[in-house]
Amino acid sequence: MNTFTLTANLVDIPGKRTWPAHIAVENGRIRSITAAETATGYVLPGFIDAHVHVESSMLIPSEFARLAVVHGTVATVSDPHEIANVLGVKGVEYMLDNGKQAPFKFWFGAPSCVPATVFETAGAAVTAEDVDQLLQRPDVVYLSEMMNFPGVLMQDPEVMQKIASAKKYGKPVDGHAPGLRGDDARRYIAAGISTDHECFTAEEALDKLQYGMKILIREGSAARNFEALAPLLDEHYANMMFCSDDKHPDNLVEGHIDVLVKRALAKGIDVYKVLQVACINPVQHYKLDVGLLQIGDPADFIVVDDLQNFTVQATYINGQQVAEGGQTLIPSIPSEPVNYFHGRHWKPSEFRIPAPPDAGDYVTVKVIEALDGQLITNTITAELPVINNFVTTDVAHDVLKIAVVNRYKEAPAAIGFIRNFGLQEGAIASSVAHDSHNIIVVGVSDEDICDAVNEIIRHQGGVTVTLNTSSQTLPLPVAGLMSPLDGYEVARRYSEVDAAAKALGSTLEAPFMTLSFMALLVIPHLKLSDLGLFDGDTFSFTEVLLK
Fold this sequence. Notes:
Elements: E1 4-12, E2 17-26, E3 29-35, E4 42-45, E5 47-52, H1 61-68, E6 73-78, H2 81-87, H3 89-99, E7 105-110, H4 128-135, E8 140-146, H5 149-153, H6 157-168, E9 173-175, H7 182-190, E10 193-196, H8 202-209, E11 214-218, H9 226-229, H10 233-236, E12 240-243, H11 249-254, H12 257-266, H13 271-286, E13 301-304, E14 312-317, E15 320-324, E16 327-328, E17 353-354, E18 362-370, E19 377-387, E20 390-391, E21 399-405, E22 414-419, E23 427-430, E24 439-443, H14 446-458, E25 462-467, E26 470-475, H15 487-503, H16 511-516, E27 526-529, E28 532-535, E29 540-541
Parallel strand pairs: 1-4, 5-6, 6-7, 7-8, 8-9, 9-10, 10-11, 11-12, 18-22
Antiparallel strand pairs: 1-2, 2-3, 4-13, 13-14, 14-15, 15-16, 17-20, 18-19, 19-20, 21-22, 21-24, 23-24, 23-25, 25-26, 27-28, 28-29
Helix pairs in contact: 2-3, 4-6, 12-13
């Protein structure tokens, strides 16, 4: 079983040399490596995404694997935080079980912050006791990103109990502390936090590196920090990794960690340094059972054409070939959806904002300013017209309405205003809304906003574009986050919905990915949860209408 010999130029990353070799594989492991006289192609350890939420691909794990292996990815360090916010431990178990259906190495963590904050409504909670139980499992290899850095700094008992569990079982703790610097960063790291994927400047990353933290360079569908952090690779490659964090299906079809490898090489960074970041550092940091092209290792490796183009010709996991020539060799596996979705029919009048009694023709409002390619937002103000005693949008100045609707129980919608989505008409909505995954919608008119929300409820989750009572939708019946369909079909249908959003005027590179982060309260500066407008700087609710 899985017995063969491969001849190629072996890329010895630790030894920083490349030489022709025969690699003998037997029963899924490397039996021997011997010198060859000549060879074509290059064999190297597979790529690893060091931090990803599989749910953000809108694909179940087994379908994510089918697409990822084409790009040379053999393993992921995956945080099931998204589905945990919907279904709790049951959701984590779904990801673990489904991931095992595919010949791919998913390494999941125990979610540390479910719910992410007390300022939003999630579908479930993962307690310190739940975390301890999960960390006892051999297939749960780390404590997922500790977003509650204020809780770490203030030594919150439950937060510290979760970190203590990870230490007890000898498993690393991932971090999440955007903008944390100086002594606060030092104290956060000293508590046992080992990584951060949220640095958006080189200065911040250097601050954390000096205190012993590993820095992940993130390049996803919404947050892109490669250009800011890539200059650090040459000197700090031993303590860095690559990750995508959140990757939509159309982007995953185009590329994965292989894209970051190519971009780093194009900047003139030494190939062995780049490959240590992409292939070796995650294995060593998380103690993963992933082969590194050593005798006795699992036969996890990829074959590329050369060390410039890095076109992946074949991918092997445990000695099984899972991709060849840009085609996946992993079959689709049927999966029954799991979900938690409450909904009723909404009316346009429920999305109105009454003007103050003494308002004239205009009222000043606080506005979320979305930033393309960033998770952070700015806080700005705008003068909006008052029509029939209600505050309305201002399409000419790109100030639209945003709303978050609770998907778990009956509650009024939270409503605010947002800039930079660029819609000239219609609305876009999604049940992917980090971290609690309520329904989030941005639109021009109350009617289209309402139609979009009702469309999401009708499908029990999805992403949709609506205009004048018509809609284009990608249903996501697995926890309101993922589709069980063929990954390439999901990518195609998502691309159509994405194009429809851009046809309404959105200039954002990834409108739905950006939309999904507008309810993420742990990223500053201004966001909207199902409970109201939230100031990330003061960590408190704030008013939409200014006096």
